Amino acid sequence: MKARCILCEQIDILDDNSIEAKKLKNHPISTYMCTNCSAKITTQTQKRMSNKQYMVYKGDTQTNIL
Ligand SMILES: [Zn+2]
Q: What pTM was estimated for this model as a whole?
């Protein structure tokens, strides 16, 4: 199946039997992100998480990951 990345709009062809393709078929609202964009976001998030000022907001509580 074909899937378009939500960030760079690159169209990838996924194997129909892959887990990612099955998730997209079962939940059409979910979005697809290509491997390049996913890796870019992962590295930037890990860089921010290594900063001591990284906060997670859940409802009314505010917790620091570290
Ligand atoms: Zn992308």
A: 0.64
